Amino acid sequence: MIRHVLAIDPASSTGWAYMTLSDTKAEEAINIITRKDNMYINLLTYGIINTNTNCIEGELCKNYKESIEILIKKYSITDVVIENYFFSYKARQGAMINVYLRTMVYYLCCEFDTL
Q1: Does residue 1 or residue 72 have the better pLDDT?
Q2: Are the CB atoms for 74 and 63 separated by under 8 Å?
Q3: What is the pTM of this model?
Q4: Average pLDDT over residues 105-114
Q5: How far is CA 66 from CA 21, 59, 93, in A?
Q6: Which residues, in sequence order, are CB contacts of 16 under 8 Å at separation 6+?
Q7: Number of domains the chain is built from
Q8: Residue 52: exposure state from Cβ atoms within 10 A (0-12, 13-18, ≥19)
Q9: Residues pairing with 18 in the sheet
Q10: 86 confidence band (pLDDT: 50, 70, 90)
């Protein structure tokens, strides 16, 4: 069984990585991690989604949703991992944008049943 995993770090510049979890090593993998249960995490590709934050919230969410949806469909994603949000009093400028972006990822996970 192969699990297709999309890891996401929601932000105005969203980092993402596509990997598989399987019992075989992928020849095209950029990096391979062997787990204790003899399963392999095969990192296949990664990138950045730059989000235009100079628009209304609805347009921001719509554009972000479309970008994530493309990745889910392109790689036949079965599981999504979302990085925890770090909040501090010194760096809190993007808190609301982060909430909007995370909400869209959770919404898509429910829509595609990948959560």
Answers
A1: 72
A2: no
A3: 0.86
A4: 86
A5: 25, 11, 24
A6: 6, 7, 8, 9, 46, 47, 48, 49, 71
A7: 1
A8: exposed
A9: 6, 45
A10: low
For the chain, what's the residue count?
115
Q: What CATH number is attached to the domain comprising 36?
A: 3.30.420.10
Instruction: Render pLDDT for 9-49 as a digit per residue (tens, 0 to 9).
Output: 988 889 999 999 999 999 999 999 998 898 999 999 999 99
The token duo for 11 is: 């932000």
Q: With beta carbons less than 8 A apart as the criterion, state whether 55 and 91 touch.
A: no
CA angle 9, 6, 67 (to 5 degrees): 70
What is the maximal distance between C-alpha atoms in the chain? 47
Q: What's the domain range around 107?
A: 3-112
The owner of tokens 């392999």 is: 40
